[in-house]
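Q: What does the predicted 3D structure of Purine nucleoside phosphorylase look like?
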Amino acid sequence: MIKAITESTEYLQNKGFDAPEVGIILGTGLGQLIGEIEILAEASYNHIPNFPTATVEFHKGKLIYGILEGKKVVVMQGRFHVYEGYSLQDVTFPVRIMEKLGITTLLVSNAAGAINLDFKKGEIMLIDDHINLQGSSPLAFKGVSELGERFVDMSAPYDSELNSKFESIAKANNIQLHKGVYASVVGPQLETRAEYRMLKTIGADAVGMSTVPEIIVANHLKLKTAAVSVLTDECNPDDLKPVDISEIIAMAAKAEPNMITLFKEIIKTL
């Protein structure tokens, strides 16, 4: 993996990706932040050596480098998922590349379903902790200790200082920002009523199919990390309606301006 990381990093450096400070991963339906960036360089995933390729039709496939609020950023426009057939090492490979390029902070977004019924679709949840239900770990491979400590402490995977800043920014901008626990499942199928009840019982406030592997690797690399979920549907097992993916995308787009405000304002503080 070290050889693959080196090849990918050198390719991007040659394309003009020069010492970004902040990495950003954009989730489902959350691509409009790109319009706020002064783009200096970009690379399609299928051109970057050793990179996976996004196979989900509503996920773009570009790594973008530029200036946002005076900071050099590198942005994943589209991410990878276990449900696309990738390994957890594939899914998190871009995080390792962004760290090698120079980032010290990683900001992550996703679209998620609200398990906590006090949270409503169209609102945003700041992730305070998570539950990994993806069945394995992105650190479970031979040679991981060559890239960092094998037994990574996860007592506080989300940076408390960044989370406090997010909460202050939300308050100042009149944005409803919940705080809670995100459960990450494999997917791609949505959950059953019984699964939603189980998730609530074990302490989840929201559920999705991403983010946790990336956060684990970010902690492995000692990056300061924060993540927000745009809540796109309400997962009430006693009143469960069939889910329309186009409605989820539309709800993410509705909440996106608030997410963009949060990300832009927090980058100003870094």
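A (community wiki): The structure tokens above were generated from the sequence. The chain has a mean pLDDT of 93. The longest helix spans residues 245-269.
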